């Protein structure tokens, strides 16, 4: 069994019909990177940088401390790409009670709809500039991609790109080594999914955050147990937004991945392949079972059933029936 798993680790994720699939890891801290490599990840698809900011009494990590963390992750991945998401603080990931108060951010009734993620970063320009500089400096040491959480508005996109240009200019003037980064948007708000062709003009790639996309599409707080039975990744509206986003990104020739929990759940692998997804990012512990699923999949048999699953009253049952049986017969 150990042998089989270790062989699997070095086997590329390719479907029966020869479609290559990229399996990347989600990490929270640089110490998670070795486990990602060990699991056979071909890169980090999501480094949740907010974990560097949390549980430290509200004191924020400065440029130097962040640079060291990003450098450690880049070096640990030994030349594989590392996608660093700018801080996604707020809602389910508060800095901590005290600091939220100190930063003059009032408690709100709906934190998930409030000042979180890129909104918070843009409201703290000094903090944001330090993070961008730290990421650009780490990019001198390996392949680094920059990912922006919770993009919903073109105004935010312009502010982010301006801040990035300024951060580069500052590093240049200070004579500090830095590299170039591809810039991507998280697609996790329905507005972003619906306006993807417009957003894609400004980004090099997109990554679909299904955890938040489900929350915002269905108006279900992902942290509220009273409604957790309604948090449904199989909801036709959710599936339709994901399918549409993947198709729009592919037709624009832009790289698209999924980094929410759905990417690491084998129940969705066939469906996501049928939608055209070829890049998945997940907790390292999920990679082996998703890879096994991909090795057994034939996208030529999956794709013809996509519309029937998407238009079904019960996409979960339809997916099980149409995809699994077809492939078993093959
Ligand atoms: C998501 O929303 O799907 C996602 C990957 O981001 P997080 O879970 O960190 O909000
Ligand atoms: Mg999210």
From TrEMBL:
GO MF annotation, one: phosphoenolpyruvate-protein phosphotransferase activity
Binding residues annotated for Mg(2+), in chain numbering: 188, 212
Gene Ontology biological process terms in this record: phosphoenolpyruvate-dependent sugar phosphotransferase system
Binding site for phosphoenolpyruvate: 48, 85, 211-212, 222
Active-site residues, record numbering mapped to chain: 259
Family statement drawn from the similarity comment of this UniProt entry: Belongs to the PEP-utilizing enzyme family.
Identification of the protein by name: Phosphoenolpyruvate-protein phosphotransferase
Source species of the chain: Piscinibacter gummiphilus
Native organism taxonomy: Bacteria, Pseudomonadati, Pseudomonadota, Betaproteobacteria, Burkholderiales
Positions spanned in the full protein: 262 to 591 of 593
């Amino acid at each position: 069994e150990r042998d089989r798993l270790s062989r699997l680790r070095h086997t590329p994720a390719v479907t029966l019909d020869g479609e290559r699939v990229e399996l990347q890891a989600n990490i929270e801290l640089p110490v998670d990177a070795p486990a990602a490599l060990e699991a056979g990840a071909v890169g980090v698809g999501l480094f949740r940088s907010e974990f560097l900011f949390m549980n430290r009494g509200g004191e924020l990590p400065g440029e130097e401390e962040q640079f060291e963390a990003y450098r450690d992750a880049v070096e640990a991945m030994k030349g594989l790409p590392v996608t660093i998401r700018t801080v996604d603080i707020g809602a389910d990931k508060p800095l901590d009670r005290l600091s939220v108060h100190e930063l003059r951010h009032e408690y709100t009734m709906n934190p998930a709809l409030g000042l979180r993620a890129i909104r918070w970063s843009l409201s703290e320009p000094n903090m944001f500039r330090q993070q961008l500089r730290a990421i650009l400096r780490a990019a001198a040491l390996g392949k680094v991609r920059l990912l922006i959480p919770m993009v919903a508005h073109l105004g935010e996109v312009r502010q982010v790109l301006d801040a990035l240009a300024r951060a580069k200019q500052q590093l240049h003037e200070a004579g500090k080594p830095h590299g170039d980064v591809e810039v991507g948007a998280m697609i996790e708000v329905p507005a972003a999914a619906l306006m993807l062709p417009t957003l894609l003009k400004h980004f090099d790639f997109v990554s679909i955050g299904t955890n938040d996309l489900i929350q915002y599409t269905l108006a279900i707080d992902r942290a509220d147990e009273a409604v957790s039975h309604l948090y449904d990744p199989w909801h036709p509206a959710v599936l339709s937004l994901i399918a549409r986003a993947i198709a729009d990104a592919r037709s624009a020739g832009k790289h698209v991945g999924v980094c929410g929990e759905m990417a690491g759940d084998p129940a969705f692998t066939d469906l996501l392949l049928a939608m055209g997804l070829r890049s998945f990012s997940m907790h390292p512990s999920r990679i082996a079972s998703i890879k096994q699923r991909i090795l057994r999949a034939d996208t030529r048999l999956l794709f013809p059933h996509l519309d029937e699953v998407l238009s079904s009253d019960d996409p979960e049952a339809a997916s099980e029936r149409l995809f699994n049986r077809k492939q078993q017969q093959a």
